[in-house]
Amino acid sequence: LECVISIDEFREKIEYIDGTVPNLIDNINGCLYESRCTSRKPVCRKNKPPMTIISEEHCAACWMLYPNRVS
């Protein structure tokens, strides 16, 4: 999540996610970010992660939110 920017914080350098965005026309079984994620696990390639509400203004879809389900 280093690539997320905020208007409340100044950064000299904005981080980015290496790699290429997948073609959304392709049938992707797993997470859309799996090929570019530094924390990816085997489950990320096989299954799309569930959308999880983090707060009223923030949601995320990542298997790393469920450490007991990551293999």
How does this structure look, described?
- By secondary structure, the protein is mainly beta.
- It is 7% helix and 13% strand.
- The chain contains one helix and two strands; from the N terminus they run αββ.
- The protein has one helix spanning 42-46, and strands spanning 51-55, 58-61.
- Strands 1-2 form a two-stranded antiparallel ribbon.
- Strand 1 and strand 2 form a beta hairpin.
- The radius of gyration is 14 Å and the shape is globular.
- The mean pLDDT is 83.
Blueprint of the fold:
Layout (H helix, E strand, L loop, with lengths): L41 H5 L4 E5 L2 E4 L10
Antiparallel strand pairs: 1-2
Please list the strands of the largest sheet in the order they lie side by side. 1-2
Q: Class by helix and strand content?
A: mainly beta
The proportion of strand residues reads 5-15%
- Described by the principal axes of the CA atoms, the overall outline is globular
- Using only C-alpha atoms, the radius of gyration works out to 14 Å
Order of helices and strands: HEE
Oligomeric state, counting identical vs distinct chains:
single chain
Indicate the percent of residues in helices: under 10%
- The number of helices is 1
Enumerate the spans where pLDDT stays under 50 for 5 or more consecutive residues.
none
Q: Tell me about the largest β-sheet.
A: 2 strands, antiparallel
Question: Terminal Cα separation, in Å?
Answer: 21 Å
Determine the mean pLDDT: 83
Q: Kindly state the number of beta strands.
A: 2
